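Subject: design request, 144 residues
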């Protein structure tokens, strides 16, 4: 199902909620109230859990960003400029914060997981271990 097909399945109230919420001027409860929903707080929570609603909000946000002239390459270019300026001015913390944001926006923050499989039981390792050795240095090896 395409994004346009999903948005056609939304009610007029849901579409109004999406447009209002995408603008970012109000919280979800206020958007639900202005869209005409009864019990706006409960409805707002329910609406934001709906994948079709979230997709429609994202679609509106993308259109608003493009209309304002702010697209992904421009945001990253501007952030890169701010990063360079922060370093020039000696504001290392600000530079690191901007660099972290760029890192996240580019999707470089994917967690890396490593799976380790243990093939030996702890008891098996104990039985295969050699007798313990005393590694205490001799008196003549100690500094005076």
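Subject: RE: design request

Done. Sequence follows.
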């Amino acid at each position: 199902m395409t994004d346009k097909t999903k948005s056609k399945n939304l009610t007029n109230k849901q579409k109004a909620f999406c447009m209002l919420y995408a603008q970012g001027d109000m919280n979800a409860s206020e958007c639900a109230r202005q869209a005409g929903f009864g019990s706006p707080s409960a409805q707002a929570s329910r609406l934001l859990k709906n994948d079709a609603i979230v997709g429609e909000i994202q679609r509106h946000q993308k259109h608003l960003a493009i209309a304002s002239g702010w697209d992904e390459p421009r945001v990253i270019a501007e952030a890169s400029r701010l990063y360079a300026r922060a370093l020039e001015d000696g504001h290392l913390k600000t530079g690191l914060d901007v660099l972290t944001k760029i890192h996240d926006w580019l999707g470089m923050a994917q967690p890396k997981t490593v799976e380790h499989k243990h093939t030996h039981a702890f008891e098996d390792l104990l039985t295969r271990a050699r007798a313990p050795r005393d590694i205490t240095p001799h008196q003549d090896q100690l500094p005076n």
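Helices lie at 3-8, 12-23, 28-35, 40-47, 51-68, 72-88, 92-105, 122-128.
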